[in-house]
Amino acid sequence: xxxxxxxxxxxxxxxxxxxxxxxxxxxxxxxxxxxxxxxxxxxxxxxxxxxxxxxxxxxxxxxxxxxxxxxxxxxxxxxxxxxxxxxxxxxxxxxxxxxxxxxxxxxxxxxxxxxxxxxxxxxxxxxxxxxxxxxxxxxxxxxxxxxxxxxxxxxxxxxxxxxxxxxxxxxxxxxxxxxxxxxxxxxxxxxxxxxxxxxxxxxxxxxxxxxxxxxxxxxxxxxxxxxxxxxxxxxxxxxxxxxxxxxxxxxxxxxxxxxxxxxxxxxxxxxxxxxxxxxxxxxxxxxxxxxxxxxxxxxxxxxxxxxxxxxxxxxxxxxxxxxxxxxxxxxxxxxxxxxxxxxxxxxxxxxxxxxxxxxxxxxxxxxxxxxxxxxxxxxxxxxxxxxxxxxxxxxxxxxxxxxxxxxxxxxxxxxxxxxxxxxxxxxxxxxxxxxxxxxxxxxxxxxxxxxxxxxxxxxxxxxxxxxxxxxxxxxxxxxxxxxxxxxxxxxxxx
Amino acid sequence: xxxxxxxxxxxxxxxxxxxxxxxxxxxxxxxxxxxxxxxxxxxxxxxxxxxxxxxxxxxxxxxxxxxxxxxxxxxxxxxxxxxxxxxxxxxxxxxxxxxxxxxxxxxxxxxxxxxxxxxxxxxxxxxxxxxxxxxxxxxxxxxxxxxxxxxxxxxxxxxx
Lengths: 494, 160
Description:
The structure holds two protein chains of two kinds. Among the domains of chain A are: about 15-145, PH-domain like (Roll); about 190-260. Chain A contains 14 helices and 19 strands. Chain A has helices at about 15-40, 45-70, 105-110, 135-145, 185-190, 195-220, 225-230, 235-260, 300-305, 335-345, 360-385, 395-410, 445-450, 475-490; strands at about 70-75, 80-85, 90-95, 100-105, 115-120, 130-135, 175-180, 265-270, 270-275, 280-285, 290-300, 305-315, 325-335, 410-415, 420-425, 430-435, 440-445, 455-460, 470-475. In chain A, the strands form four sheets. In chain A, strands 6-5-4-10-9-8-7 form a seven-stranded antiparallel β-sheet. In chain A, α1 packs antiparallel against α2 (about 45-70), α5 (about 185-190) crosses α8 and α6 packs across α8. The longest helix of chain A is centred in the middle third of the chain and has 27 residues, at about 235-260. Chain A is globular, with a radius of gyration of 28 Å. Chain B has helices at about 15-45, 45-75, 115, 140-155, and strands at about 75-80, 85-90, 95-100, 105-110, 120-125, 130-140. In chain B, the strands form two sheets. A three-stranded antiparallel β-sheet of chain B has the order 1-2-3. In chain B, strands 4-5-6 form a three-stranded antiparallel β-sheet.
């Protein structure tokens, strides 16, 4: 029996992180001080260095004090935290409100064999508790105390076995445990087909233009000199562009691979534990009961490989660095998807077929993208010079294709306890939504739909990342009403 | 089976509140148009700017004072059943929203200066995925509605 009532502090190395935080908070006054003294000629060096010394000493003392005053205590089903230098804050975190407990280890944490621990709760946009350094054993103790563990028997349809087609498994699983390790080849494919690479491209280009501006403004470089290095002909430019593109793509692939390497999903009874990362090993754990919906996403490239990535829609998934952790599996062949869901999120059942909207929905899906693209294409047609005006027509053509695809892919599958919604244009997305997770329902009839007896059904689930509103568009109003009322019916209590 | 349609309407005074708000909006528009008119005369701006602005102001005011309150009043219906709240609303796009009672986390009333003047309250209730409201109920009714929702939502307290 553990002594629950003993108050504890973090590992002393966390003083370092407290100091960093204090320095961050005080950076502006410090810069002001440094500038105001350093820029004056008549300041005695003793004053300047004295100031720096006082500042350093103060920061170290404050950091240590902050560490000393950060005390936590685990009691039955609840965690108490007290912290704050001037204003004392007391937090009480009941286990029922904990959405996830996250640990990770950066370089400093690794050096000292400790972990960073983040606790997220329902109803707060920021993590409730961030502890920068606790020992691995202590992290495990907190995790065990705070992540709700529902016995596997209570979770319906749980199959406590390794699936035979699971390509690789890591540690030997205990009873009721399932482990799935995503093969490295598939992590590579995920990284290579990730759209985020192109985001990094944009960022790099923006940075480059900034740097160029600065260099130009400083007047340090002769602006003509670099021109000599630049290609002169159009063909050379094209080669340069392709080379840059490939380079960035490789770089992005490498970065994402390092981040997601060794992605492992483990299920221990009612908890999921997700580990990933090569240099920085990250762990994310969430109670299966907290999962609001499953979101399956296939972008254009991944469709070619018949693979999709699977995300969890959970209520608290914004990490303190602003990133959203929600991946259940970076990439999985579509044929393995039903097994994956069965093993790890038994509440979500993959449907074998979909119902689809009829021809009457086509207009609704096509009209808006087509109208917007035509409005954009007309000026293009008029003003693109050199007889290339007709190229603007590619836009409405793409929009038409997009609309038709949206119509073709729209679908749903309704069961007593869940609904699956399929949607998307060039990409294909699916949401598996257990009925009891739907927060509210809405039927919308726009003036255009009213004339044709159509409606849009909207199902909203809780999510801190975005408004998770799943829509089935342009279906006959009667059908939409029937679906809403069927889903709405109070569900039988277990 | 025909699903019941919500029957309850908002308080008739709500129409006056929205109209008053519309008139306040119109007054703001009038000031803006007057300022632009002054600038046009002073700095010789082309006349079409102020004319266009005046037309927009008149149309917007007409919508805000006459059309929108009337349509909103006619469309808004609500029902508070034992297991759900049923709202019919929307001006251009018609909406019907069902919020299961078990999903309601808390229920509040709020009252701006204008509503206070007319003795009305807005009842708001929140779920884990956003807020909803029944605007402009008279104070007594609002209190009843709030108490009823609070009671019904508590009995069937379900986890998130």
